[in-house]
Amino acid sequence: MSAKLKILVPVKRVLDHQVKPLVNAARDGVATQGCKFSINPFDDIAVEEALRLQAAAPGAVEATHAVSIGPTKAQEVLRNCLAKGIGSAALVETGEALEPLAVAKVLAEYVRQQGFNMVILGKQAIDDDSACTGQMLAALLGWPQATNACKVALDSSNGVSVTRETDSGEETVRAPVPLVITTDLRLNQPRYVGLSKLMKVKRTKIPVLTLEKDFKDVDVKSRLQTVSVDEPATKQPGVMLKDVDELVQKLSEAKLL
What we know:
Elements: E1 5-11, E2 13-15, E3 37-39, H1 41-56, E4 61-70, H2 75-84, E5 88-93, H3 100-114, E6 118-122, H4 133-141, E7 145-154, E8 159-166, E9 169-176, E10 179-183, H5 195-200, E11 208-210, H6 211-214, H7 244-253
Parallel strand pairs: 1-4, 1-6, 4-5, 5-11, 6-10, 7-10
Antiparallel strand pairs: 2-3, 7-8, 8-9
Helix pairs in contact: 3-4
Protein backbone atom coordinates (compact mmCIF):
# COMPACT_ATOMS: atom_id res chain seq x y z
CA MET A 1 0.00 0.00 0.00
CA SER A 2 1.55 3.28 -1.13
CA ALA A 3 -0.16 5.66 1.32
CA LYS A 4 0.53 5.15 5.01
CA LEU A 5 -2.65 4.57 6.99
CA LYS A 6 -3.55 6.81 9.92
CA ILE A 7 -6.46 4.97 11.49
CA LEU A 8 -9.00 6.69 13.74
CA VAL A 9 -11.18 4.51 15.97
CA PRO A 10 -14.08 6.39 17.62
CA VAL A 11 -15.27 4.62 20.78
CA LYS A 12 -18.29 5.24 22.98
CA ARG A 13 -18.81 4.68 26.70
CA VAL A 14 -22.12 2.88 27.16
CA LEU A 15 -24.03 0.93 29.77
CA ASP A 16 -22.40 -2.49 29.94
CA HIS A 17 -24.13 -5.00 27.68
CA GLN A 18 -24.70 -7.38 30.61
CA VAL A 19 -26.68 -4.75 32.55
CA LYS A 20 -30.44 -4.83 32.05
CA PRO A 21 -31.49 -1.22 31.35
CA LEU A 22 -34.35 0.23 33.40
CA VAL A 23 -36.38 3.37 32.76
CA ASN A 24 -35.57 6.16 35.22
CA ALA A 25 -38.10 7.88 37.48
CA ALA A 26 -38.49 10.86 35.16
CA ARG A 27 -39.28 8.50 32.24
CA ASP A 28 -36.98 10.45 29.96
CA GLY A 29 -34.13 7.98 29.75
CA VAL A 30 -32.42 4.96 31.26
CA ALA A 31 -31.43 4.75 34.94
CA THR A 32 -27.62 4.83 35.22
CA GLN A 33 -27.01 5.35 38.94
CA GLY A 34 -24.63 2.67 40.22
CA CYS A 35 -24.52 0.87 36.87
CA LYS A 36 -21.41 -0.50 35.19
CA PHE A 37 -20.22 1.21 32.00
CA SER A 38 -17.84 -0.12 29.37
CA ILE A 39 -16.80 0.30 25.75
CA ASN A 40 -19.53 -0.17 23.15
CA PRO A 41 -19.10 -3.81 21.94
CA PHE A 42 -19.12 -2.86 18.25
CA ASP A 43 -16.43 -0.22 18.90
CA ASP A 44 -14.36 -2.82 20.75
CA ILE A 45 -14.43 -4.86 17.54
CA ALA A 46 -13.27 -1.78 15.63
CA VAL A 47 -10.33 -1.37 18.02
CA GLU A 48 -9.36 -5.00 17.52
CA GLU A 49 -9.55 -4.67 13.73
CA ALA A 50 -7.29 -1.60 13.72
CA LEU A 51 -4.73 -3.53 15.77
CA ARG A 52 -4.99 -6.56 13.48
CA LEU A 53 -4.43 -4.45 10.38
CA GLN A 54 -1.39 -2.89 12.01
CA ALA A 55 0.00 -6.32 12.95
CA ALA A 56 -0.68 -7.79 9.50
CA ALA A 57 0.90 -4.88 7.62
CA PRO A 58 3.09 -2.87 10.03
CA GLY A 59 4.69 -0.97 7.16
CA ALA A 60 1.31 0.15 5.86
CA VAL A 61 -0.14 1.50 9.12
CA GLU A 62 1.55 4.64 10.41
CA ALA A 63 -0.64 5.24 13.47
CA THR A 64 -3.73 4.12 15.35
CA HIS A 65 -5.69 6.57 17.48
CA ALA A 66 -8.83 6.24 19.61
CA VAL A 67 -11.17 9.13 20.38
CA SER A 68 -14.27 9.30 22.55
CA ILE A 69 -16.90 12.03 22.77
CA GLY A 70 -18.42 12.04 26.23
CA PRO A 71 -17.92 12.65 29.95
CA THR A 72 -14.63 12.64 31.86
CA LYS A 73 -15.21 9.01 32.85
CA ALA A 74 -14.87 8.01 29.19
CA GLN A 75 -11.12 8.16 29.77
CA GLU A 76 -11.47 4.71 31.33
CA VAL A 77 -12.62 3.36 27.97
CA LEU A 78 -9.74 5.10 26.21
CA ARG A 79 -7.19 3.65 28.62
CA ASN A 80 -8.60 0.23 27.86
CA CYS A 81 -7.87 0.92 24.18
CA LEU A 82 -4.32 2.00 25.01
CA ALA A 83 -3.81 -1.15 27.09
CA LYS A 84 -4.82 -3.24 24.08
CA GLY A 85 -2.21 -1.54 21.90
CA ILE A 86 -3.80 1.54 20.32
CA GLY A 87 -1.04 4.10 19.81
CA SER A 88 -2.70 7.20 21.25
CA ALA A 89 -6.04 8.52 22.44
CA ALA A 90 -7.96 11.73 23.10
CA LEU A 91 -11.22 12.72 24.74
CA VAL A 92 -13.66 15.31 23.44
CA GLU A 93 -15.26 16.15 26.75
CA THR A 94 -18.93 17.02 26.92
CA GLY A 95 -21.57 16.64 29.60
CA GLU A 96 -24.43 16.30 27.15
CA ALA A 97 -25.39 13.32 25.02
CA LEU A 98 -24.89 14.25 21.39
CA GLU A 99 -27.12 13.01 18.60
CA PRO A 100 -25.53 10.87 15.85
CA LEU A 101 -25.42 13.78 13.39
CA ALA A 102 -23.60 15.97 15.91
CA VAL A 103 -21.16 13.14 16.66
CA ALA A 104 -20.50 12.70 12.92
CA LYS A 105 -19.84 16.42 12.54
CA VAL A 106 -17.37 16.47 15.42
CA LEU A 107 -15.61 13.38 14.10
CA ALA A 108 -15.42 14.86 10.59
CA GLU A 109 -13.77 18.00 11.94
CA TYR A 110 -11.40 15.91 14.06
CA VAL A 111 -10.40 13.87 11.00
CA ARG A 112 -9.63 17.08 9.09
CA GLN A 113 -7.63 18.52 11.98
CA GLN A 114 -5.53 15.42 12.57
CA GLY A 115 -5.18 14.14 9.01
CA PHE A 116 -6.56 10.63 9.38
CA ASN A 117 -7.26 8.70 6.18
CA MET A 118 -9.21 5.74 7.58
CA VAL A 119 -11.95 5.56 10.19
CA ILE A 120 -13.05 2.24 11.68
CA LEU A 121 -16.03 2.37 14.02
CA GLY A 122 -18.82 0.15 15.27
CA LYS A 123 -21.88 -0.05 13.05
CA GLN A 124 -24.06 1.03 15.99
CA ALA A 125 -24.02 1.85 19.70
CA ILE A 126 -26.04 -0.43 21.95
CA ASP A 127 -27.56 2.46 23.93
CA ASP A 128 -29.44 4.23 21.12
CA ASP A 129 -29.07 1.68 18.25
CA SER A 130 -29.10 4.53 15.73
CA ALA A 131 -26.63 2.78 13.37
CA CYS A 132 -26.06 5.85 11.22
CA THR A 133 -23.00 7.72 12.54
CA GLY A 134 -20.56 5.99 10.20
CA GLN A 135 -22.67 6.66 7.13
CA MET A 136 -23.14 10.33 8.00
CA LEU A 137 -19.43 10.70 8.72
CA ALA A 138 -18.56 9.32 5.28
CA ALA A 139 -21.03 11.72 3.66
CA LEU A 140 -19.63 14.72 5.53
CA LEU A 141 -16.06 13.81 4.55
CA GLY A 142 -16.99 12.85 0.98
CA TRP A 143 -15.31 9.45 1.46
CA PRO A 144 -16.40 5.99 0.30
CA GLN A 145 -17.82 3.73 2.98
CA ALA A 146 -18.05 -0.01 3.65
CA THR A 147 -20.65 -0.91 6.27
CA ASN A 148 -21.34 -4.07 8.31
CA ALA A 149 -17.85 -5.41 7.64
CA CYS A 150 -17.20 -9.05 8.52
CA LYS A 151 -13.76 -9.17 6.85
CA VAL A 152 -11.22 -6.45 6.02
CA ALA A 153 -8.04 -6.87 3.95
CA LEU A 154 -5.47 -4.38 2.64
CA ASP A 155 -3.97 -4.72 -0.83
CA SER A 156 -0.81 -3.38 -2.41
CA SER A 157 -2.50 -0.76 -4.60
CA ASN A 158 -3.75 1.63 -1.92
CA GLY A 159 -7.09 -0.13 -1.66
CA VAL A 160 -9.09 -2.06 0.90
CA SER A 161 -11.29 -5.09 0.28
CA VAL A 162 -14.23 -5.39 2.66
CA THR A 163 -16.59 -8.33 2.89
CA ARG A 164 -19.89 -7.10 4.25
CA GLU A 165 -23.07 -8.78 5.36
CA THR A 166 -26.31 -8.10 3.54
CA ASP A 167 -29.86 -9.39 3.88
CA SER A 168 -29.19 -11.89 1.10
CA GLY A 169 -25.72 -13.04 2.16
CA GLU A 170 -22.24 -11.57 1.81
CA GLU A 171 -20.70 -9.31 -0.77
CA THR A 172 -17.12 -8.11 -1.19
CA VAL A 173 -16.47 -4.52 -2.15
CA ARG A 174 -13.23 -2.70 -2.81
CA ALA A 175 -12.56 0.97 -2.14
CA PRO A 176 -9.56 3.27 -2.12
CA VAL A 177 -8.24 5.13 0.89
CA PRO A 178 -9.50 7.40 2.48
CA LEU A 179 -12.32 5.20 3.70
CA VAL A 180 -14.90 4.77 6.48
CA ILE A 181 -15.56 1.21 7.69
CA THR A 182 -18.25 0.13 10.16
CA THR A 183 -17.81 -3.19 11.95
CA ASP A 184 -20.21 -6.08 12.47
CA LEU A 185 -20.14 -8.66 15.27
CA ARG A 186 -18.58 -11.41 13.15
CA LEU A 187 -15.54 -9.39 12.08
CA ASN A 188 -13.33 -10.55 14.96
CA GLN A 189 -13.12 -11.44 18.65
CA PRO A 190 -11.70 -8.57 20.76
CA ARG A 191 -8.65 -9.49 22.80
CA TYR A 192 -8.63 -9.75 26.59
CA VAL A 193 -6.70 -7.07 28.48
CA GLY A 194 -4.74 -8.28 31.50
CA LEU A 195 -4.51 -6.31 34.73
CA SER A 196 -0.79 -5.65 34.26
CA LYS A 197 -1.40 -3.85 30.96
CA LEU A 198 -4.22 -1.82 32.47
CA MET A 199 -1.97 -0.77 35.33
CA LYS A 200 0.72 0.41 32.91
CA VAL A 201 -1.66 2.93 31.31
CA LYS A 202 -3.52 3.86 34.52
CA ARG A 203 -1.61 7.15 34.86
CA THR A 204 -1.28 7.87 31.15
CA LYS A 205 -2.35 11.43 30.50
CA ILE A 206 -5.06 11.59 27.85
CA PRO A 207 -5.45 14.91 25.98
CA VAL A 208 -8.84 16.49 26.65
CA LEU A 209 -10.54 18.67 24.04
CA THR A 210 -13.76 20.63 24.39
CA LEU A 211 -16.56 21.46 22.00
CA GLU A 212 -16.47 25.14 22.96
CA LYS A 213 -12.75 25.60 22.31
CA ASP A 214 -11.66 23.01 19.78
CA PHE A 215 -14.89 22.54 17.79
CA LYS A 216 -16.48 25.97 18.18
CA ASP A 217 -17.52 26.12 14.52
CA VAL A 218 -19.27 22.72 14.62
CA ASP A 219 -23.05 22.81 15.00
CA VAL A 220 -23.98 20.23 17.65
CA LYS A 221 -27.46 21.59 18.31
CA SER A 222 -30.03 18.92 19.18
CA ARG A 223 -32.70 18.33 16.57
CA LEU A 224 -34.61 15.59 18.36
CA GLN A 225 -36.74 15.72 21.49
CA THR A 226 -37.39 12.73 23.74
CA VAL A 227 -41.10 12.71 24.57
CA SER A 228 -41.03 9.71 26.91
CA VAL A 229 -39.27 6.44 27.53
CA ASP A 230 -41.28 3.35 28.47
CA GLU A 231 -40.68 -0.33 29.12
CA PRO A 232 -41.63 -2.69 26.27
CA ALA A 233 -45.18 -4.01 26.42
CA THR A 234 -45.46 -7.28 28.31
CA LYS A 235 -46.17 -10.22 26.03
CA GLN A 236 -49.16 -12.39 26.81
CA PRO A 237 -48.28 -16.02 27.65
CA GLY A 238 -48.89 -18.65 25.01
CA VAL A 239 -51.79 -21.11 25.19
CA MET A 240 -51.61 -24.78 24.30
CA LEU A 241 -54.49 -25.87 22.03
CA LYS A 242 -55.85 -29.37 21.55
CA ASP A 243 -56.54 -29.30 17.83
CA VAL A 244 -57.14 -27.16 14.74
CA ASP A 245 -60.81 -26.64 15.59
CA GLU A 246 -59.87 -24.98 18.87
CA LEU A 247 -57.34 -22.82 17.03
CA VAL A 248 -60.01 -21.65 14.61
CA GLN A 249 -62.33 -20.91 17.54
CA LYS A 250 -59.67 -18.82 19.30
CA LEU A 251 -58.87 -16.88 16.14
CA SER A 252 -62.57 -16.19 15.60
CA GLU A 253 -62.99 -14.96 19.16
CA ALA A 254 -60.04 -12.61 18.65
CA LYS A 255 -61.70 -11.42 15.39
CA LEU A 256 -58.66 -12.49 13.37
CA LEU A 257 -60.73 -14.53 10.92
